[in-house]
Amino acid sequence: MLELILADRCTGCDACVAACPTNVLDAVPGGPPVIARQSDCQTCFLCELYCKADALYVDPDVNTAHPITPEAALATGTVGRYRRESGWDEHAGDPRHANEHWRMGEMFGIAARLAAEARAGLS
């Protein structure tokens, strides 16, 4: 769940606001966005993927909020990690972090097939 926006890193670009599929964040003119609807966070990490400033801390627990200070968040070593390990943006081409998001189409296809088979009573 999105827990923290590191204001001193945030550039105010609002890419995280635009990327969030459940509208967890609200833009603030002239400042960092605010986490307005934290309980709506699906922990999809899209906000982190689109934050080039690595200004977000997303805790992997989707069900429970875990308030954290900026210092503690940075000490976890996970700020921006999903972006790096996904091979996103400036990390593209890094052989240690291959971007394989293109494979999601294949996964969604398998899920759709299994759902159709379940509806038809085939599985």
**Overall shape:** globular
Q: Radius of gyration over alpha carbons?
A: 17 Å
Query: What is the distance, rounded to the nearest whole angstrom, between the alpha carbons of the first and last residues?
Result: 34 Å
SSE pattern, N- to C-terminal: EHEEHEHHH
Q: What is the secondary structure topology, with strand pairs?
A:
Layout: E1 2-5, H1 15-19, E2 25-28, E3 31-35, H2 46-50, E4 56-58, H3 70-75, H4 81-85, H5 104-119
Antiparallel strand pairs: 1-4, 2-3
Structure notes:
This protein is α+β, with helices and mostly antiparallel strands. It has one domain (2-98): 2-Layer Sandwich (Alpha-Beta Plaits). Helices cover 30% and strands 13% of the residues. It has helices spanning 15-19, 46-50, 70-75, 81-85, 104-119, and strands at 2-5, 25-28, 31-35, 56-58. A hairpin with a 2-residue loop joins β2 (25-28) and β3. The radius of gyration is 17 Å and the shape is globular. The two termini are 34 Å apart. The mean pLDDT is 85. One of its GO terms (molecular function) is metal ion binding. Keywords: 4Fe-4S, Iron, Iron-sulfur, Metal-binding. Residues 1-30, 31-61 form the 4Fe-4S ferredoxin-type domain. It comes from Derxia gummosa DSM 723. This is 4Fe-4S dicluster domain-containing protein.
